[in-house]
Amino acid sequence: MKFNASIEDTFIWTNNKNDSYTTKSACHNSVPTLSLLNYRKMNPSASCVRCGLQDETFLHCIRDCEFSRSLWHYIGFTNPNFFSNMDVYDWIKMGTIGTHSLIFSAGVWWSWRHRNLMSLNNETWSLSRLSFNIRSMVETFKNCFTITPNGGSVDRFIKWNNNNFSCTILNVDGSCLGSPARSGFGGIIRNTFGHYLAGFSGYIQGSSDILYAELYAIYKGLLLAINMSIDELVCYSDSLHCINLIKGPQVKFHMHAVLIQDIKDLISQSNVSLCHTLREGNQCADFFAKLGASSDADFTNHDSPPEGVQDLLKNNALGILFQRD
After folding, report:
1. What are the pLDDT digits (tens) for 59-115?
2. 248 lies in which domain range?
3. Biggest alpha carbon–alpha carbon distance for the chain
4. Strand runs labelled E in 223-283
5. What DSSP designation does 42 have?
6. From residue 175, how far is each of 209, 211, 220, 252 by CA, in Å?
7. Is pLDDT of 21 > 60?
8. The CATH number of the domain where 179 resides is what?
């Protein structure tokens, strides 16, 4: 392939002739709503099982069913024009342009997820819980896509202990490997200079739930730090969702509510700060999590650094910066 220095690098979309993205070129009417499944002879009825009032088309499922409509109202979409457009492509295009594009995108995703929870699991979430998850997703979007005022992407450089805390540092991570997936967790405790104090890893039998693995890593890491009588601790995780769940309001109806509350209790009883890091600053914890997923031990305490992690430890202690992918 030839390169020309006068041509600026840019993203292109190959699914239409002018290489520009359009929602029409990306959407294929393949969302498995009951209307589509009925049309394909895969479901006996096209009626919405939640309200029973209309066929479950995409727009009815995501936007117009009374359960979905109440969610949109709750997060601020109250303009009647928002609900009047009956063309899917135009509605999505309208929603993904402008200042509300991120919360619109998250709203579409969680409206669909809530439909699945209600229809498949007979589980209904409160509007406040759904709103919390939507706003957490928006924060994740913002952290992933930092934009300069002129519209260009910002190079982001990450290091271990990126916030420069001067105390004991705990990094944790969860991992799912292989097929069928094996879940594991792990973490590492170091002093403020990056010197190794302790590490841990473990295998979670019969689970492929990455969220549980991430939460369990935090829980086991905090317990280890307490057993080591560490007075002041900063815990870094690269799961922003976990951090939001722990720092947010009590989630009584979450599938991991007990574990989340156990973590909240540990944090409230000790001098612990919980922070988000990008994965480039969490490489050692990732090593231990993968070690746990590939083992058969429920929990292993590593008194000394395992083989293969020494170079990562050295790079972290030296404060080497890694560019965010």
Report:
1. 999 999 999 999 999 999 999 999 998 888 889 988 988 889 999 999 999 999 999
2. 158-323
3. 64
4. 232-237, 271-276
5. S
6. 9, 9, 15, 25
7. no
8. 3.30.420.10
Q: Which residues contact 158 (CB under 8 A, 6 or more apart)?
A: 277, 278, 280, 281, 321, 322, 323, 324
- 237-266 pLDDT, tens digit per residue, is 999 999 999 998 888 888 899 999 999 999
Q: Is residue 152 part of a domain?
A: no
Residues 244 and 165 in one domain: yes
Q: How far apart are CA 306 and CA 199, in angstroms?
A: 9
C-alpha span between 45 and 109 (Å, rounded): 24
Instruction: State the first-to-last Cα distance of the chain, in angstroms, to the nearest integer.
Output: 23
Which pLDDT belongs to residue 159?
Answer: 93
CB 286 within 8 A of CB 173: yes
Write down the pTM of the prediction. Answer: 0.57
Only one residue has tokens 């910002």, namely: 154
Nearest-angstrom CA–CA distance, 71 and 311: 49
232-237, strands of its sheet edge to edge: 271-276, 232-237, 168-177, 182-190, 196-204, 300-302
Same domain for 73 and 216, yes or no, is no
Alpha-carbon gap, residue 20 to 216, rounded angstroms: 43
Q: CA nearest 160: which of 194, 137, 136? A: 194
CA angle 224, 225, 227 (to 5 degrees): 65
Do 230 and 189 contact (CB within 8 A), yes or no? yes
Residue 73: how many CA atoms within 13 Å on its side-chain side?
A: 8
Higher-confidence residue of 13 and 172: namely 172
Tell me the per-residue pLDDT of 182-194, one tens digit each, with 9 for 90 and over: 999 999 999 999 9
Structurally, the chain folds into a number of domains equal to 2
Provide the token pair at 224: 């280890």
